[in-house]
Amino acid sequence: MNPPERWTQATVHPDMWADPADDPRESDGPSPDGELATLRGYLRDYRLTLRMKCDGLTPAQLAHRSVPPSTMSLLGLVRHLAEVERDWRTWITDEDLPKLYGPRDGDFDGAVGEPAAVAAAFADLAREQAATDAELDRHPDLGAAPGRRSIAIRDLLVHRIEEYARHCGHADLLRECVDGRVGQ
Fold first, then answer.
1. Three-state SS for 182?
2. d(CA 98, CA 37)
3. How does pLDDT run across 140-165, given as a tens digit for each residue?
4. Is the pTM higher than 0.85?
């Protein structure tokens, strides 16, 4: 199989994913006020980046494992991040929630290119993100460490940002392998 030709939709900066005027992460307004708003802003932007990297692909393309022998795919990343949102949230709620996708690597192994599987994965991600955000809203003090693991809210937010940032890097490469689209 020949690699796809590299391309972008950006016209202002040809190495970008989207032109600044079309990028939902861009803001001409003031910077967030304070540490909590800054951390929440970075988390929001990385979550948007993952969705952007998946936009416009078919279920088969989303499930394509484009870097063998890895089982990683864009759909697998969506499922994985839904699972991780749930897992990290339980560190501060002490809930005993079952895994969304079964045993270890079920998030990647079960990422199949069927419309129902794709819809379910994005619904799972949205639900788990909303639940995590609702729980974080209950703890505006970044130094608070609720739950038996005593994980500070700041630590939880930074780990969430790190997880998304790392996987958005994977998504860049996976997307380029799928259809050649490149950019920030």
1. coil
2. 31
3. 999 999 998 899 999 999 999 999 99
4. yes
